[in-house]
Amino acid sequence: MSGVITAKGISSLAIPLLARRLVLPMTVARVPGGEFSGDNGDTITIRVPQPGAASVQNTPSAEISYDDVNEVGVDVSLSHIYHAKRVSDEELTLDIVDFASQITAVQVDAVARGAENTLATEINNVAADTTNVDGSSAQAVRDAILQAAEALSDNDVPEDDRYFAIGTGVRTAILNIPEFVRVDASGDDASLRQAIVGQLFGFTFVVSPALDKFGATAYHRTGFAMANRAPVAPRGANDSASVSEGGLALRQIFQYVPDRLSDASVVSTFAGSKLVDADRVFKFELANGS
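RE: above sequence
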């Protein structure tokens, strides 16, 4: 058997796999995993500063006024996302040729997609500002993108770090816009580079099958937040190891189950995502899947 059947073997497989897998998490604000503690489902409050307003001293030496600096709290909850596989003695002895590729790869991919889906769900749940955009008209789609750019600018959203996350059904409509600068054929293995369709009007466009097929969501990096950390090594596990890549941390454990004459392989992570500031997000939808 060529696969290394130890938890430490996860690192050689998980890192390149995660590098290809992660897309949406690379476009949003990340909450350091160390800020979470406690049980499954625990939350952390993100402090979001609110804009202030400048004052003018009308005459020299005149008394000035003092303002408060306000923050809004946004709660992000973690869920324990896992993939568990019980490997029988028969499978291990007779069927499995490469444990890493046949078992661990499937588990890492499942958990990575599960973690990313927490963010995709938040993006999908954003209410559309504009619906029934004619996807067969490059001009109509172009106008919707300009509307998004204007809406974000009107809300004092910074011009940098702006993204458009689109479903697979929007890609063709975007590519039909004459000014669109296509960059998705770079050949880079990095997932974000592979997922970038192109750039237009200050937005970087990324496509993900986890999003609503005909939805297009514009946002600043700080519009959403994602948090993640690997579970601690359990004291009762036979073997345990953690790995981190691109901000996503995973843990794999092995434990023999004697009453089933099987090995249990479990890959898991804690992950959660949240819409932070609706003013930094704009969404449109194509009409009738056009």
